[in-house]
Amino acid sequence: MTPGQGFWGDWLEAPHRQVTGGPVDYLMMDYLAEVTMSILQKQKSRDPSLGYAKDFVPSMERILPIVAERGIKVTANAGGVNPRACAQAVADVARRLGLGGKLRIGIVTGDDLLGRLEGLLARGHELRNLDTGRPLSDVRDRVLAANAYLGARPIVEALRQGADVVITGRVTDTGLTLAPMIHAFDWPADAWDLLAAGTVAGHTIECGAQCSGGNCLVDWKRIPDLANVGYPIVEARPDGTFEITKHRGTGGRISVAGVTEQLVYEMGDPAAYITPDCIADFTTIRLEQAGRDRVRVSGVRGRPATEKLKVSVAYFYGYKAVGTLVYAWPDAYEKARAADRVLRRRLESLGLRFEAIHTELLGADATHGRLALEDLAVEGLPEVQLRIGVRSPDRAAVERFTRELAPLILNGPPSVTGFAGGRPKPEEIVAYWPALLDKSMVEPCVEIVEV
């Protein structure tokens, strides 16, 4: 099992490299983040034929002949809010490639709750925000997308019905990897330790090369040949143990330290990593360097799944704009600070009110805040970029802010050397609303399309 995408926008070469670089049985392609669903929902509202990750289609066009010839199965959540349209696009490509009669596409739906919200709220499902406790009714009129996180089971069903490519909407990242393991090893629905092991495997590779040398802190200067980085591969066994490796001849590195970094990525309670399929206890994971670019994973324990599904809701929050100016030595830091003060006073004198004004001084304090300034000789900085952003429910206020930045070039502190990106434009803010919903309220659906 190997990933070909860790997010929408990942390396376009990765899927082809993974299916041609050596033997693989399953290719997992993860495209969705929380904000992605609202983007795709907007696309679908403008054009009913859209709403999926369009990058997936040319990637599949490139690898489908290889996938079909070698019997590689593909699991992907590229369907976004329109899995059927995505599947149709892939089917059209397959026919053009002469693969008619040689491919079956599984479609998993049922996660999209946008059209059901009124009914759910009327039945007493308040979808309270997990962080604030507020009911969804507070922002119902601004909701852009609402999707339940499905687990591995509907993907397993599609594979059991003979699907070669399974296209889903919002399923858990880990489910894309766990499902092939359940299918291949016929794991029971209550084999909690095994399901937890498969979940850990999925979490390890869900971000692509982030566990094989990319974005790695430990000894990062010595990671070999990142330009040729190999994406990770899970070699799984029926007993739940597995090894992480990569194709021979590729760059990057598979090490206990690198795998550990990925395991703690986006981690809440390590003893209770909750998915629709099980609860995995990450404190029980045992890692062992089993050879060059090979890490063995064992000991994973799990507990029964909860009766809830997580729901990701995206809603319209207001407007924002971010602009930048670059100030040169000498006194670059002081010039940037002075420009920030001037701009804030002018916005105040105009009577503009913002929910937030946020300033970063890139080159000085943008990453580490005041801690960076304690040991920094700011007077010697060769250049500093002033980046300032505003947020407001009032688009007119944000629009006026965008017109107040450029005048600082001539009527503010001296030595502006760059007006990065030109005058900024107001952007809509999409906010995230996490909630829980009874599993009984969500019915996944599996369809099979013959190419």
Summarize the structure.
By secondary structure, the protein is of the alpha+beta class. It contains 13 helices and 19 strands. The strands form 4 sheets. A 6-stranded mixed sheet has the order 1-2-3-6-4-19, with helices on both faces. Strands 5, 14, 15, 16, 17 and 18 form a 6-stranded antiparallel sheet that branches. A 4-stranded antiparallel sheet has the order 7-8-12-11, with helices on one face.
Shape: globular
Q: Measured on Cα atoms, how large is the radius of gyration?
A: 25 Å
Strand content: 25-35%
Q: How many beta-strand segments?
A: 19
The residue fraction in helices comes out at 25-40%
Going across the major beta sheet, what is the strand order? 1-2-3-6-4-19
Number of helical segments with 4 or more residues: 13
Q: Specify the biggest β-sheet.
A: 6 strands, mixed
Structural class: alpha+beta
Ranges where pLDDT stays below 50 over 5 or more residues in a row are none
Explain the overall architecture.
This protein is α+β, with helices and mostly antiparallel strands and 451 residues long. The chain has 2 domains: 2-311 and 435-450, no CATH class; 317-432, Alpha-Beta Plaits (2-Layer Sandwich), CATH 3.30.70.600. The chain is 29% helix and 26% strand. It has 13 helices and 19 strands. The strands form 4 sheets. A 6-stranded mixed beta sheet has the order 1-2-3-6-4-19, sandwiched between helices. Strands 5, 14, 15, 16, 17 and 18 form a 6-stranded antiparallel beta sheet that branches. A 4-stranded antiparallel beta sheet has the order 7-8-12-11, with helices on one face. Strand 9 and strand 10 (279-281) form a beta hairpin. Helix 1 (14-20) runs parallel beside helix 3 (56-70) and helix 7 packs across helix 8. It is globular, with a radius of gyration of 25 Å. The model has no long low-confidence stretch (mean pLDDT 95).
